[in-house]
Predict the 3D structure of the following.
Amino acid sequence: MPPKVQDLPTASFGLLGAPGFITSHHVFFILAAVYLIVVHRLRFARANTMQLPFTTAGRPLSSMTTQEAYEIITQLQSLEFPYAMNKARSVALLKAGGIPTMSKLFAVTGQNNIKNAGRRATDTEILLRESQTQKRDSERYMQAVARMNYLHARYRKAGKILDKDLLHTLGDGALEIVHVIDKEEWRKLSDVEKCAVGLFHYNLGEDLEIPYTPLKSYEEGWEDGLHFITELIEWTQEYEKEVAKPTATGDHYVRVYVDSATKKMGPLVTTFLRKVIGSDLDKTMRESLNLPSPGPVLSVVLSTVVATRKLVLRHLSLPRPSFLAYQSLSPSPNSNGLYNFSHGGFQPWYVQPGLWSSWSPGAMLLRLLGARKPGSKGDRYKPTGYSLETIGPPPQEGKGVEEMRSMVQNMKARVAELSNSAGLRKRDKPNRLG
């Protein structure tokens, strides 16, 4: 029996299959193909440009200057990997609590409690961000470093903060940048980028007056930033294996900074968050912080999420344009002469109330989870902003201004002396770079 007239289109599609569908939607497929080609061409353009002076031009990594390292770091955290850089900073700060001497110090200061934890974490993060986002010869960078030096000074003098603990904290900052990007981002860091991260952390460690004597090449110096960061990471991992042990103060540290964030969501959410955080740590630090292993099921779920994100960013997403560069710190002071912070959390410290800070999708999601709205409770969360001369725990707020000014002047003299030299070279100083 001949087919009915109305059956012919169905039969035709069945015979032609995908080619027929593509032909009838050729404009869409042409545009999609062009888009994928553009993504393929542009995705690595920024990375290739950063490497160009040291690949095509043939310059050795030892010739990288502090300014070049700053420019590379800026692109990594504002354009290439803002998510990973933020996460690396958070994980490194958490891991400080896994070192017994550090967690004990946090406990005895009286600031390691639910009332003060939010502000302390934000203040620490801001000082780190200021040092990572400003040029080394800028006033803001020097003020941030001087503030950290002042806040650490009395504890270092009393032997409550060890030089090795500070070196570990510096090393964890470098380690987690490399680890998180290589594990979770759409591409790994190049040697040029690792060199820049190493040079940045070397300079920061010098400005924080952290001795590098425990590192293997301390006596002869390091060839370049890549050499330095490799040794720093190796030493950091060995130090964790040596000293990181479960303690009551370490457990309390996690309960204050992790459990308090989910206390209104129930124990199931808290347990889930602890496992997610545990998945970002190795066995040594996970046990030291009394965090559980994620288990096989959650590990598969998290791995799938990471793999999917990598695929979408690598093959389907255009690079972030410069006009959408991620920026969490105000580029200039506000009308009060203070700086605002835009990386909101459950407590909106120093966040200026506004349409986006209050009603963006991220801000609304945080409030659904129990976060405070920027500007709520009046001046409780200091929406007018922060000053780098006074930021810190309430007992230290406003103290040390004169000491900091002296530190800034010393840094200016040191940076001016090195301004025209490559970033890594041997110096007649305690820390040596080849």
Remarks:
- The mean pLDDT is 88.
- The two ends are 89 Å apart (CA to CA).
- The chain has two domains: 47-335+399-418, 340-385.
- The CA atoms of residues 119 and 349 lie 7 Å apart.
